[in-house]
Amino acid sequence: MQVKIQQAGETIRRLIRRDAYTNLKKILDKTHPADIAYLARDFTQFERDTIFKILKDDTEKTAAALSEMELKEAVRLLEQISQEDIKLILLEMSPDDRVDIISSLPEELSEAVLQLMKKADTEEVENLMGFDENTAGGIMNTEFHAFDEEMTAKEAIDVIQKSPDIESYFYVYVVDDRNHLVGVLSLRQLIVKPGNTKLKNIMQTEITSVHTSIDQEEVARQVARYNFLAIPVVDEENKLVGIVTVDDTIDVLREEATEDFMKLAGTSTQEITEKSVTGSLKVRSPWLLASLAGGILAAVEISNFVVTLERFIGLSAFLPVIIGMGGNVGVQSSTLMVRGLATGRINISHIWKVIGRELLVGASLGVIYGILLGLLSRVLIWADIFEFKSDISFTVLGFVVGLGICTSMLIATVVGAFVPLVLEKMKIDPALASGPFVTTAIDVLGVGSYLFIAATLIK
Amino acid sequence: MQVKIQQAGETIRRLIRRDAYTNLKKILDKTHPADIAYLARDFTQFERDTIFKILKDDTEKTAAALSEMELKEAVRLLEQISQEDIKLILLEMSPDDRVDIISSLPEELSEAVLQLMKKADTEEVENLMGFDENTAGGIMNTEFHAFDEEMTAKEAIDVIQKSPDIESYFYVYVVDDRNHLVGVLSLRQLIVKPGNTKLKNIMQTEITSVHTSIDQEEVARQVARYNFLAIPVVDEENKLVGIVTVDDTIDVLREEATEDFMKLAGTSTQEITEKSVTGSLKVRSPWLLASLAGGILAAVEISNFVVTLERFIGLSAFLPVIIGMGGNVGVQSSTLMVRGLATGRINISHIWKVIGRELLVGASLGVIYGILLGLLSRVLIWADIFEFKSDISFTVLGFVVGLGICTSMLIATVVGAFVPLVLEKMKIDPALASGPFVTTAIDVLGVGSYLFIAATLIK
Fold this sequence. Notes:
The structure is a homodimer. Chain A is mainly α.
């Protein structure tokens, strides 16, 4: 499958190079809009522009392809055509995608396009524009079937047959005379029942709905948990105002997972699609600066223990292992917390239980690896692999190194677990600061405690 | 919403403590099976057993709740009841979930249960058991509507009305007389058309299907890309054998993302639900051992440069910043690659372009932070914040440190980008070895090059 698409991509590029527009149009007609959007990511700007020019009169396909593309690129392409053409393409989009594009167009253009669109549609778009794009209101679709509870199954089917444009056909929502959501039934239930049955007698009345202001991630989690195909969105008065469909929630879940990955690594989703090197530098720099500050702090720490270090230079040889082991075990703990919190597997109400458990894990790991490293370093020195000379007993050195790694790992697990949980409790995104902040903090604390132990034991 | 569920959970626990089984049954009846499964994660074993005993006669709800639970726990609960009861509950499950449970039961029990189940069902389960559980065949559902292309819309609707048990009602598949998949249409299209229209005249013939052996991740990606509600699964002869529904693919995508998170951190998904501390230790140890080996290698490296270090002890103060910055920038690069490859945003066919870009980013970051750190260290020494004494020019020291961090960051970006791409090319999961392996490799290489630069420049 993947291979087939790649081949289509190669063919498209070749046809563009040869200016073979007739054949190009033929192959584009046969390519799924999602595949066009997928392929476009690897195309040059010129190639994308060419494809767009050929495709744009097929407004439905163009709309579908643009909806699947990076917003920035979709806007760039649209800016090349007339306002009238923009309008025609936008009208083929689902309202939520339409709003995303309109709010990203330059202000003048966006107003002109809004003017061109029919009044009804504009109103809908303007209503949607009032919602934060990361909430249920921001991702909901306003095209859905809502029927009065007094209607019969037959009447409902008749309405559906006459409105072929409504995308979300799997659930039918039932409202009372004040447009309050009171029930739901599937299209299947509608056709299975005798035509004269009233909707209120066949509908399911236990409905899960979300408020317009609910975070999109929470919406996606509910859709995933209950295996819904769509979830209804209601306003303050429990009036049905839209639905969020499962395909939109898949995108939300994937985007959020990618965002968490990038944040944990100290960068952002932006960098995956970033083309320019300077763009990458900007995105990466904040956390690298934090890491630099931490590193300098560690250097100052070390300079304060210069007397101890000069008595036995071999102590510095174990700095990398102290930092490396601490960092790795800390990342294990913080990743566990960040992902556990994101998927709901770890519950913030059990914060002390979770931290207590990590403390135990950290202490056990510290003792095990402390003994291991302490013995190993003693053996390495005995075997003359380390070429250090010193008046300090090598057994003491092994003990210092072992105790150092033990402390460092204990600190690492606790910091690694604590930081994300505290951030979550403070309603700050735990993924944001957990990665580089945790490793930097662990570096500074680990180095400090190791040298303190050394200075105390080696007198 | 979340709060409401938590409250239900508290009530359930209280009722269990009071042995108030009648009220307990009432509240369980009103709780969604997905919520019961969700709450059960925080319950004690005794509480879960109590709930299961009360719930088990409602086979449909029990089946739904067990399907949403950890497989291990679902099996543990089922082992407490009679084979006949197990059979009744399993019969309410979708075939793919049923297979997962049966293959996890102790062999004797699983055979006894298979015996009890009706022949037809057993055959189906046994067929499914032949597929790898991570493939389309392993997650597909065998209950779906497939109609002959010569049937009319009316005839198809009649069949649907008579088979209320089939879960996946949104697509209807069309096959020819040899059961080959030839078309698809939505339930909606079926009721919109006149009843006497033949299916072959209204079906959509461009169908995306997957082979039973396709990896579940690839299946999920296709469902997400094309916004499908289900995707048909075919065997070698293009015969329709099942469908994978969107709710199953959401679970796949979430599971895979969680797996990648854990692998990148050097642990596994298992640890999120792991209760015992020794279990955690086992899961975390492989990568910690690798990190320990790397740390000892770095210690040996350092011991080889003891002459240089003894001439200026201040060099060791910069080991943490060299390791820390290298590690962070390397994690940024490798995370970018791992997630980019997983979501299809980064394409393996452009491996050299991607690595070239990272090389540029690494070189730029190296130069910027090299100059910054070089100047900073020179200033810190001048300001007497570092209490080192030495006969080496401090300008040379600044130069060594600057060049050291520059090299280390350049190495880090290239290793960070290269390792996941090479693993992907070798068909090894890039998430598996990228995290701790990359940071450990970067530690060793970074420390080595820094000390080499120092030894070369400080003569």
